[in-house]
């Protein structure tokens, strides 16, 4: 029987690092919502035009692509605008991910993973059979986010605060990977969970 496992977490909690391990070391397909969200806003795509209509040409770079830093600087500080952007981008992302899932299953894959940051916030659990949460304490999340994106504490905090707290997500997930430690320790936990679920 085919199965979809959802990987979720918070911004900079380690989803991509864990997904990379599952793809490269364990050999599974990962469908990534962040990548889909980039593709559907490329010039010429449906969501692109809507973003320009709502947010104006101010959020475009000179090559006409979306200025992600600028758009982020708007929507992470304004819930109304964030909802507006989500309303434009999320339906297109869901559609794209479902197409990718169909293709993978048609190619004979039995288990695949979807990396969806806003799985619980957007109530997308119906898209997956089981959920794995990549958890970190908020202090570590803040530090890793500031470092990776070169953000100030205020900027990083605004991004974290735009999401459901990871302690709340813990209650909703089928399995929790504690990524406070090294990546190797997290990889061990992932293998343990997948072995318990008889996926590997
Ligand atoms: C605001 C945008 C332009 C900023 O782009 P940027 O390249 O800086 O960030 P990136 O897309 O890589 O996202 C990084 C992380 O930010 C968080 N995040 C992104 N969008 C949102 C959102 N609307 N609400 C809460 N958290 C978000 C996620 O944890 C995501 O993994 C971009 O994130 C975006 O278009 N967001 C709306 C679509 C969306 O919700 N994407 C997330 C999953 S579908
Ligand atoms: N166990 C770890 N130890 C040290 N650094 C880590 C660990 N896990 C992840 N990181 C680092 O923390 C940052 C965030 O990790 P990653 O990009 O995997 O998170 P993410 O959840 O995919 O983030 P986002 O949703 O924002 O794209 C990266 O710079 C990554 O190298």
TrEMBL record:
Pfam families for this protein: CoaE
Q: What is this protein called?
A: Dephospho-CoA kinase
Q: Which lineage do the record's taxonomy fields give for this organism? A: Bacteria, Bacillati, Bacillota, Bacilli, Bacillales
Q: What GO terms fall under cellular component here?
A: cytoplasm
| Catalysed conversion reaction | 3'-dephospho-CoA + ATP = ADP + CoA + H(+)
PANTHER family in the record = BIFUNCTIONAL COENZYME A SYNTHASE-RELATED, DEPHOSPHO-COA KINASE-RELATED
Keyword ATP-binding appears in the UniProt entry: yes
Query: Looking at the keywords, is Kinase present?
Result: yes
Please give the InterPro entries that the UniProt record associates with this protein.
Depp_CoAkinase, P-loop_NTPase
Similarity comment: family membership: Belongs to the CoaE family.
Which compartments is it annotated to reside in?
Cytoplasm
What is the species listed in this Swiss-Prot or TrEMBL entry?
A: Peribacillus loiseleuriae
Q: What are the protein's UniProt keywords?
A: ATP-binding, Coenzyme A biosynthesis, Cytoplasm, Kinase, Nucleotide-binding, Transferase
The UniProt gene name for this protein comes to coaE
Q: Pathway membership of this protein?
A: Cofactor biosynthesis; coenzyme A biosynthesis; CoA from (R)-pantothenate: step 5/5
Offer one example of a GO biological process linked to this entry.
coenzyme A biosynthetic process
Q: Write the Enzyme Commission number(s) for this entry.
A: 2.7.1.24
**GO MF annotations in UniProt:** ATP binding; dephospho-CoA kinase activity
Q: Relate the protein's function as given in its record.
A: Catalyzes the phosphorylation of the 3'-hydroxyl group of dephosphocoenzyme A to form coenzyme A.
* Residues annotated for ATP binding in this entry: 12-17
């Amino acid at each position: 029987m085919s199965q979809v496992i959802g990987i979720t977490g918070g911004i900079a909690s380690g989803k991509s690092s864990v997904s990379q391990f599952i793809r490269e070391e364990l050999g599974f397909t990962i469908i990534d919502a962040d990548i889909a969200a980039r593709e559907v806003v490329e010039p010429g795509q449906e969501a692109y035009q809507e973003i320009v209509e709502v947010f104006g040409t101010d959020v475009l770079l000179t090559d006409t692509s979306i200025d992600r830093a600028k758009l982020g600087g708007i929507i992470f500080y304004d819930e109304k605008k964030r909802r507006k952007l989500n309303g434009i981008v999320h339906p297109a992302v869901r559609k794209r991910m479902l197409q990718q899932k169909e293709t993978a299953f048609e190619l004979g894959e039995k288990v695949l993973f979807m990396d969806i940051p806003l799985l619980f916030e957007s109530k997308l659990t119906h898209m997956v059979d089981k959920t794995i949460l990549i958890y970190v304490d908020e202090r570590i999340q803040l530090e890793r986010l500031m470092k990776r994106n070169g953000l100030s504490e205020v900027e990083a905090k605004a991004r974290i605060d735009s999401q459901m707290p990871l302690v709340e997500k813990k209650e909703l997930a089928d399995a929790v990977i504690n990524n406070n430690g090294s990546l190797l320790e997290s990889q061990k936990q992932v293998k343990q969970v997948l072995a318990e679920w008889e996926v590997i």
